[in-house]
Amino acid sequence: MEVSCSKCNGSAAVYLPYGDENLCKKHFAESLEKRVRRTVREFRMIEKGDSIGVAVSGGKDSVSMLYLLKDICDSMRVPLVALSVDEGIKGYREGTLKIAAENCRKLGVEHKILSFKKETGITVDEIAKKDERMRTCSYCGVFRRWILNKAAREMGLSKLAVGHNLDDAAQTVLMNFLRNEPFRLARFGPSGGVIGHELFVDRIKPLIRIPEREVAVYSIIKKMNIRFGRCPYAHEAFRNEVRVFLNDTEEKFPGTKFRVFNSFMSVRDALGGKFNTDETPMRCKECGELSSKEVCMRCHMLKELR
Ligand code: SF4
Ligand code: ZN
Fold first, then answer.
1. Residue 116 confidence (pLDDT) above 80
2. CA nearest ligand 1 atom 8, residue
3. Among all ligands shown, which has an atom nearest to the Cα of 301?
């Protein structure tokens, strides 16, 4: 028997177990767009006078976020530009960069590509060859954040949007508790980082309340050109364990991922009060970027690799 949409007579395309709701394609897309707008408003992610950078990798999360933010920014007359990072991953990144560029062209969004080789002198392929401790993703993450922050600031952008979804957020929260590293969570959240520092471009996460599965469905319904592949170096074993656990638990107890995220949000201020120090961040003596120590993580890691 065909199930009909909870909001109209159309046939349902998506079931949202946590809300016990069936939605047709149109009403599902509207519901997701509304929820993203609400998140953006609630955390004042985009305001008049902002200029927004969107980190676009070419995957479903970042491309969906680009479509959603283009709409929101246009309605607020806020400028938007897309930034992609070429880490130098042969056989993988060329394809995703092409997709990012195609989507930007389609939407009429300016697109800038930043390169690992140019900004740090090393590619992820080269890091992977040197790296014996299987920490490629750690290097990659630190270098990418450094490159994006510097580029966004130099371009005069006031915020940088990253495509983290609810699954990413719930995994991060749980991983930090399981590792007994709550201090790392003190700066985590819908918008985050060293807010208000002239060298730091605030990060915003407009998809933080949207489950990964729904972002994927949205990108398919909207017929977006995206890439579903995986980076060959993606082997974060611990995160994978947590992902599987959360997915299993979500299936048995719908709404689990929301509850993990909401629990974190309700203790977030307390964590901030306990672990955020009043120390003023300084400039790295090697590169001049923002750092909590004399030498920033990017420069420290570059030395390690040499
Ligand atoms: Fe970089 Fe790891 Fe992501 Fe690949 S999976 S792009 S190496 S962080
Ligand atoms: Zn540095």
1. yes
2. 137
3. 2
**pTM of the entire predicted model:** 0.94
Ligand 1 atom 7: the closest Cα is on which residue? 137
pLDDT of residue 158: 96
pLDDT(194) > 60: no
Indicate the top mutation candidate among 84, 124, 172 to test ligand 1's pocket, ranked by most ligand atoms within 8 A of CB.
124
Band of pLDDT at residue 120, cut at 50, 70 and 90: very high
Does 44-305 carry CATH code 3.40.50.300? Answer: no
Task: With a cut of 90, say whether residue 107 has pLDDT above it.
Answer: yes
Label residue 71 by pLDDT band (50, 70, 90): very high
Residue 132 confidence class, pLDDT cut points 50, 70, 90? confident
Mapping DSSP onto H, E and C, the string for the chain reads CCCECCCCCCECCEEEHHHCEEECHHHHHHHHHHHHHHHHHHCCCCCCCCCEEEECCCCHHHHHHHHHHHHHHHHHCCCEEEEEEECCCCCCHHHHHHHHHHHHHHHCCEEEEEEHHHHHCCCHHHHHHHCCCCCHHHHHHHHHHHHHHHHHHHCCCCEEECCCCHHHHHHHHHHHHHCCCHHHHCCCCCEECCCCCCCCCEEECCCCCCCHHHHHHHHHHCCCCCCCCCCCCCCCHHHHHHHHHHHHHHHHCCCHHHHHHHHHHHHHHHHHHHHCCCCCCEECCCCCCEECCCCCHHHHHHHHHC
Looking from the CA of residue 128, the nearest atom of ligand 1 is 7
Mean pLDDT rounded to a whole number for the chain: 93
Ligand 2 centroid to residue 290 C-alpha, Å: 8
State mean pLDDT over 12-18: 92
Neighbours of ion ligand 2 (CB under 5 A): 284, 286-287, 296, 299
